[in-house]
Structures are given as C-alpha cells and as structure tokens.
Here is the input.
Amino acid sequence: MRIAILLMDNCFGSGIHSILDTLIATNYTLVKSNHKPLFEWDTVSIDGNPITPTNGLTIQPDYSLENYQNLDTQPDVWILPSVFQSLSAFERVEGFLTSVEPVIPVIQKHYDRGGLLISICSGAFLLAKAGLMNNLPALMHWKSEAFYRRLFPGLKIDTHNAVADYGNIISVIGGSMSCELMVMHLVERFAGHRTAVDTSKLLMMHLNAPSTKAFRTNVETTDHADELVLRAQRHIEKHSHEEINFNSLSNMLNISDRQLTRRFVKSLQCSPLQYLQTIRINRACNLLELTQLPSTKIVYEVGYKDESSFRRLFKKQMEMTMESYRQQFGSRMQPG
Here is the structure.
C-alpha cells in the first residue's frame, strides 16, 4: 500500500514524523511475525521545496506535486495533515487555503478513482474545499471549529470521536496523538487487529482513542457578532454559581425566551441552559485540576444543589466521573 503525505509550511511537524515512525514500526511488526511489510510512503510538497513546520525543523519532501503526478504509479492513500495552526488568525487560515489550491483537483481525482483520503485536523478543510464533506461530519481540533463553520457554513462537525471512517474518507481529530491514532486505525483496517495490537504495544501507546470531551474545557465562545447573546453570556458566567431564571434574563434583554434560545443556538449551537451547564462543568474541571477540594464540595461551589444530578451531567458531558477527571488532570504535587 503506497501512501502520499502532503507537506505544508506551518503543518504539525512532529505529527509528520509520528506518522512515519508508526508506519515503520508497523512494517517491523509484520516482518517479525513472518509477513511482508505493508506500507510504502512518499512525502510531497506543492513546489518540491523543503517545508518548515511549526517546530522549525525543516523537512525535505521526496517530490513536488507535479512530479508526483507524473509517476507511473499513483498512491492508494493521500494523507492530508493539518495545513495551519489551530491558533492562527482567520486571515492566515484563508491564506493557507489559497496556497493549497493546486492540491484540490488532485484529491478530487484521487477520490473519483476510488482512492482513500485521510484528513488530520485542519486537513479536513481541504476535503471540504474539494466538495467531499457535504454529507460527512469533519473531525478537527476544537480550536479550528469556528474557522470551519465560518468558511463552510452548513457543513457538519463531529466533536465526539477521535477517528471517523467513512469508507473512502477517514477524518481524524487534532492533537498530539492524532497522527498515531490515524495510523493505528489504518493498520487495523488493512493489516488486522493482531498487527495493530502488537504495533501499539511496541510503541507503548493505546490502540483505542480516549474520549475527546475531557479536553474541551474553557470554551466560553465569543467568536460571533450577536451583541445580545454576548450580554447574556456575560450575565450567565457572572452568576453561574447562583440560581438563574432564564425568563428574567429574557426580560432583562427585552426579548422573548424563544428568541433568546434561537439566537443562542445560531451563535453558539446550544441553548442558554446548556451554556450554563457548560460553564458550571468548566468551573468544576478547573477546581478538580487546581485544588484539593472534595468533589462533593465542588458540586455546591459551581451552583448545584443536587449532587447526584450534577454528577450525572458531568459524566454525560465529559464521559468520565469527577474522580477520574481529577486522576487524569489533577496536580500530583502535594500542597506545601
């Protein structure tokens, strides 16, 4: 199986190396179990010149895009890693997407002839630009979601899974482990579960992705233009530890409950109540991370009277208990 890996300036450099290291480890695992190596790969930049990823360590591609297309053998898989930093300004994102225009017809042609396309984080923007994500939820780092919604309104985003396999398209969320998870999914799909397990043990990494929800704290979104919703957000955040009457909030803003909910959903993709719940869960996460307060007391600190109700909400939203969250993100240093 031949894989083409797209290289771009400001891509996630350690991710590129992680892909290659995991492919090498997989081939090693196959050879040690008396099988032939499965994967071959080429790195391709648009002009064939070295690229400088975010870590500043220059990578020399094997081919330019034009030279690669002229080869007798075409790849089975195109991997499209992140093409910009999730923390970039919107204008820079537009610039990055303009610079990758030459790739769009290549991946469209590859898809049309039945080839596999894999996007990692903002690599999904290329698939959307190519018109291939119209009915498919794209995965990406949560910091890139606002850019995606702005550039491709109406397209879907999946914020719950680390890897989504749609057949000829695989979409992978961002983050430091995304490239390894992507390769391990590829290994399990084409080389079998046994090889995937053996490779994951060789690399001392988890085969199955953890829940992504625990990483999405502190997301009080203000990247929208609805001033009334912003006022409502500030009020909810300021009084989140108190009992909030949403009817009174609507009256204060001179708007009906229905209109307030509609504008919240349009701007934030959630209702006012869901926003309050998110704020309270975020506050609980901060207290679990930074203090030794018992979880029972944290429930009341964030504004809940019913402990069992909040615990159910926390587990539903974060896909783990408060105690598990503290074990994963709490300080290991003892006070004093």
